[in-house]
Amino acid sequence: MQKLEAHEMPLHKVFSSDYDFQIPDYQRPYAWQEEQASQLLTDLQEALDRGADEPYFLGSVVLVKGGGAPKAEVIDGQQRLTTLTILLSVLRDLTEDAELRGDLDRLVMEPGAKIRGLAPQPRLTLRYRDKDFFEKYVQTKGAVDTLLALKEDTLRTDAQKAILRNARVLHSSLTAQTEQRRLELAQMLAERTFLVVVSTPDLDSAHRIFSVMNSRGLDLSPTDIFKSQIIGDLDAEASEACATTWEDAEEMLGRDDFAELFLHLRLIFAKKRAEQELLKEFPEQVLSHYLPDRAEAFVHDVVRPYAEAYAQIKEARYESASGAEAVNAWFRRLHQIDNYDWRPAALWALRHHESDPAWLDAFLRALERLSGSMFIRRVYTTPRVTRYAELLRQLDEGQGLDSPALELRDDEKADTLTLLDGDLYLVRRIRKYVLLRLDELLARGQGVTYDHPLITVEHVLPQSPNDSQWVELFDEEQRAQWTHRLGNLVLLNRAKNSAAQNYDFAAKRAKYFTGRGGVVPFALTSQVLQHAEWTPESLKARQEELLGMLAEEWRL
Prior knowledge:
25 helices, 56% helix, two-stranded antiparallel ribbon
């Protein structure tokens, strides 16, 4: 029988000679983005502000580790361990305190001990393709400044680019803080920040543990526990009626979406970002308004109507005698954004104005503008949720469509416009959203949707034109200026074709940008087909036209 061990450990014990963390090559590469790195730092700083006695838990890591040997293969937890190493390295290289720098370096690098047979080496070794880069530019003392000076397009892997981007965002945030604040953060990281380290000497066992820890299974969820708290003290008749209503709502949404609904309800009621897990906050922030005397009201006046509103939003199936399609079109647009933090505000709107489609149309137009701008500007979770929480507060105060949080400030408008006018193609997450939005405007449609299994973003002027007509039409400076910008991009409902991408314009237009029978489904692409040639002048004119359409639609 394999021995399983699980221990809560402070980070100074996790990053010690007890563990030699290694990321197996079969694991996926490091992939956390700036939003997750920023969120980790924000969460740590908020825990620091809450007081000296409260521990902060970062979750668990699952390891294959045999006997007393330090070697530990990381089965789950790579992203956190890597980001924590970047954070510790940035703190180390920023500090002016030589003693603190040495302490932090020992968390990142094993200094070695001849008497114990320990060689100097990194505490964490990444996958083969990235380990040397990580040691040279992150883990080595004083290396972070060299890392920050690197150009992203010179890096070999997406993991190295993610390491660089996350080091930059952490460095920027920490540079703005005082030396004392950074010291306090380092002390909290070492002493009051904990991981649950789960280890087994057997790989199969480790994978089973990982699967159990990450499966929904039949374990009790927070909503199951809330249900027992709410219904448990009711008489038999009321208990049965509430249980039926509750279970109907859960069945309508499905278990995962029903659980997510409670996260949204927490924000609607508390109007502030979560600081602890739902199980701790929801009873105080939401249930305390209804228990013990109004348990039935919570089920019938909160759970049921909000579940119905959630289903209408998720499936874009709002119904009304008139104006329903305009409302549902906004839901479909909002679903193209890569987060659901806008949903509590939409739920509030449906709950309070369900019978007023004109109001919903106006509100959701403004909400999509706000959400789209934050998406384009890559506003990360904390400020994003804080903005929606403020909006909910203003809505509850009766400010409605005039809520200041719903409006973009002048600097937000300018930043959005600047990003739209930049190298849009290189911002992978937002480019398709922007282009589909533009395509809809060009089609003059309301809520245009496409039932294509694949939609790709393509260049007109290719990225690598080689020796072709493109080199004659665009010099090197013009190609650098225009290749990745809005005016040079189209949508296709087919996989990329590396050969066709480099066709001259006439061939590209005839063979690559048209569908079967010469028909292309996207208005954005049809517009390009109307051009006889593609030159810097025509591209500049199209850039100005498209940018102007977005600026008008979003009032930028």
